[in-house]
Amino acid sequence: MGRIKAIIVKEFLHILRDPRSLTIVFAIPLIMIFILGYSISYDLNRVDAALVDLSQGRLSRQLGRAFAASPFFVVRMRSEDGRGALSLAQAEDLLRRGRVREIIVIPADFARRLSATGRSEIGLVIDGSDVNVANLVYQYGERVLMDFIAAMTGAGQVLRIGTKVHFNPEARSQFFFIPGLVAVILLMISAMLTSLSVARERETGSIALLFISPLRSREIVVGKTIPYILVALLDGAFILLFARFWFGIPLRGSLLVLLVFALLYIVSGLSLGILISTSAPTQRVAMLATMLSTLLPSILLSGFIFPLDSLAPVLRAISYVIPATYFLRIIRGVVLKGAELRHFLFEGGMLIGLSLLLLAVASRKFNRQRKAAQ
């Protein structure tokens, strides 16, 4: 323990003598969560639509007003010169130019067929170049149509649907994405802290002193990890507080439960950083390798954006060795659902296993380099 303590003291002195690195460590997460927190969203607050009313009757005008009264739709009914109703060719031109996302086509026999048979058709032409946006546009349009039908037939008085949305009643994408961003950023920063530390010692030549010291390789690895656990915890608390008070993300679970799992997660990130640093000759290479090995897999293969069930079998298998896969479930469960420790025993076990595996591999590789240098 005395030898490990000496390494811990040395690392803390390195941290205090390099305030620029600490500034980067705390500034980068703030910038990332601020930009990504606003830019990554499934919400669609405005849908520009063109209404082509070929019927020009009372019912078609009511339907047009129903779309215009929706909080999501901004409906264009007149031609660009304002001299007449919008034609189908003009609406298709607007869709092709990206001026509208949807065309609502009310056929000429809309009112007649509705009065005669109680059934009619309308057309929805949607810009499908962005699939996610197209799905939302369709859902919004379908909602307006269902409300219109219910009001016209009185079905709303017969059938009433009671809906309650748990955990995110406002259906805000930020509630889903920002806890995930905390997990992604925390892994990246944790790995970067230790990878840059070892790479810096290799650049300055001070790592040779560690190689010839009586310290064991595992003692060096553990001693280098412990100080950065505290720094990473401070960083994680800083990010979480910013998410709570700036974006209004709730914290429904126990902070203690989140702290326990965050410690395991941070250790896995720091161990990964040491493993990367054993192969990185310079700090620049270490930083690039850390970004590639943490940021991209954590965003694309952990369930941060895409559900794991939608991934190909090979990519899904890779996701099982990404620490963010497990911490994403934990932080979203604790923050949004108020989940408890017992709900994440499997995820906690996987984080412990990954941390021990990464520490063992990093220690072994560090020991090989040490023997080669001697």
Task: Report on this structure.
A four-stranded mixed β-sheet has the order 2-1-3-4, sandwiched between helices. The protein has helices at residues 2-17, 19-39, 58-69, 88-96, 110-117, 131-153, 155-158, 173-204, 207-211, 217-246, 255-277, 283-300, 313-319, 323-337, 345-373; strands spanning 47-53, 73-76, 102-106, 123-126. α8 (173-204) runs antiparallel to α10 (217-246). It folds into two domains: 2-40 and 172-373, no CATH class; 47-158, abc type-2 transporter like domain (abc type-2 transporter like fold). It is mainly alpha-helical and 374 residues long. It starts with a helix and ends with a helix. It contains 15 helices and four strands.
Biggest sheet: strands side by side, in what order?
2-1-3-4
- Which sequence of SSEs, written as H and E, runs from N to C? HHEHEHEHEHHHHHHHHHH
User: Mind telling me the C-alpha Rg?
Assistant: 28 Å
Structure class: mainly alpha
Biggest sheet statistics: 4 strands, mixed
Helix content: 55-70%
User: How many strand segments?
Assistant: 4
